[in-house]
Design brief:
alpha+beta; CBS-domain; three-stranded mixed sheet; about 160 residues; about 30% helix; 5 helices; two-stranded antiparallel sheet
Length: about 160
């Protein structure tokens, strides 16, 4: 349905150009151990949590580490109990820069991409960082202003 091509990307391009598909998902009843295994097996930083086929949350590596550090038993705690439910999402046609701003403002590193009721993909800060660094490598100055923060990248 969607393809990922990273050649000559620009911050005004659509999220669909960098998002990852297929998306790793687990049922809300999956154990924290299963979440950790899925993250490790796929080499990813977050999984979508689904209930009856619908995205209801996200569990990140940080969530797993936080709950384990608090003494959670990974066999008895579920994805549904630790997932972030205040989902911040993007659409496949949203601009990369808009998705990056949304992630900065929400202080999240992984953004589910939704198309209607479907999970279209995931985009991470790493995906967006690659685009911004690539632009910086080809332009003298790049200014990114998410939420009033001014960042200037210069070639020396």
């Amino acid at each position: 349905m969607y393809t990922s091509s990273r050649s000559s990307l620009h911050p005004t391009d659509a999220v669909a150009r960098v998002m990852v598909w297929p998306v790793a998902t687990l049922d809300a009843d999956a154990s924290l151990q299963q979440v950790a295994e899925a993250l490790a097996a796929d080499g990813i930083g977050a999984v979508g949590v689904v209930r009856h086929g619908n995205l209801v949350g996200v569990v990140s590596e940080r969530d797993v580490v936080h709950h384990l550090a608090q003494g959670a038993n990974p066999e008895h705690v579920t994805a549904g109990e630790v997932m972030a439910t205040d989902l911040v999402t993007a659409g496949p046609d949203d601009r990369l820069l808009d998705a990056a701003r949304r992630m900065v403002e929400a202080r999240v590193r992984h953004l589910p991409v939704v198309d209607g009721d479907d999970i279209a993909g995931f985009v991470s800060m790493r995906d967006l960082f690659e685009v911004l660094v690539d632009v910086a490598a080809h332009e003298e100055d790049v200014v990114v202003v998410p939420s009033g923060t001014r960042v200037v990248v210069r070639q020396e």
